[in-house]
Amino acid sequence: MGVRESIYKRNTTHEGLLALIGTRCYPQLLPDNAKLPCVVYNLIGTPPNNYGDHDASPPDRWTTRIQMDAYATTSDGVHAVGEQLFNAWEGYHSGTAVGWAWVKNQIDSYDLGLNLYRQMTEVVIDYKR
Fold this sequence. Notes:
- This protein has helices at residues 3-13, 15-21, 75-89, and strands spanning 25-27, 38-45, 61-72, 98-111, 116-128.
- By secondary structure, the chain is of the alpha+beta class.
- The chain has a single domain, classed as STM4215-like (2-Layer Sandwich).
- A 5-stranded mixed sheet has the order 1-2-3-5-4.
């Protein structure tokens, strides 16, 4: 399972997120007329594979940054999703697919173009390539 599939699976099976967004988790772009609240995710940093696993084999794990944007029509709604994103990802691991994940940042904003509340959650994920 690749990192994108791992993100979608975690966001749509974590109990708290599932209750709020169901399967409304989208890669890269908020769909037109999307039902809210929802989450849009982007890989924002996939550096060259320089992860050292300290054995003679070629590196087989990557570390990348993911930006997950929660969107909702109310400030309370977006904060509820942001809280569940934090709960879902802080310290999460699934064995080899996601070795570990840590929330590095959360930022509130209001998207004037979309007229929606937005909360960005930045996560660093170590995953099997």
